[in-house]
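Hi R.,

Here's the chain you asked about this morning:
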Amino acid sequence: MLEYIKQTVKRGYSKKQVVAIYDVAMDSIGTTEGATTAKIQLELYLEEQELLKKQIERIEEGLEELLRKTGYYESLISIKGIGVVSAALLIGEVGDLTRFESYEQIRRYAGLNLVENSSGTHKGKTGVSRRGRGTLRSILYRIAFTMVSTNNEMKQLYKYLKERKNNPLKSKQAIIAVVGKVLQIIFTIVMNNTKYEAVRVFKQERLEQLKAA
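And here is the predicted structure, written out as tokens:
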């Protein structure tokens, strides 16, 4: 051991020092104290994880069942980027979509309609009103973020809005614009009882414009 240490360190150690290192190593490395407790703890964590997984699955099954009863299931789930949970949360917050006359009404209901922040002669910036259901806004934002990541058409639209030559939008502004488009899509396919199709969402020339952006 002494020769090994001399070969692997920059300076040598005396035999007494090597013995001291060995004694410390024997007391610290490979200790089995607490191993049984740690193993039990790990097993409990794994059991808890499995339990939570089963609970989440049951909740999702319940949400899917409720969503199917609304009659919107097939239409909403056909949109890439919208899953059972997000669709159920949306309907739970909005209610019957057919009670609205347009998607713009839903946007105002969420407080996402555009208003100009001005007072007197001062002309301010344009932003969302936020005079609506905050929870619905959060749900729509999450849906938009997911669709920008997973839905090709929304990804292209988001990129185009941020990079277009005339009036490019900042990230948050682009997401708000995507939310408006998502609401338009949801409202249209639900009212027509159809499924999501990219060629119906954007006209062919618009698709080519987005792809070229």
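One quick note: The chain is about 70% helix and 5% strand.

Cheers,
M.
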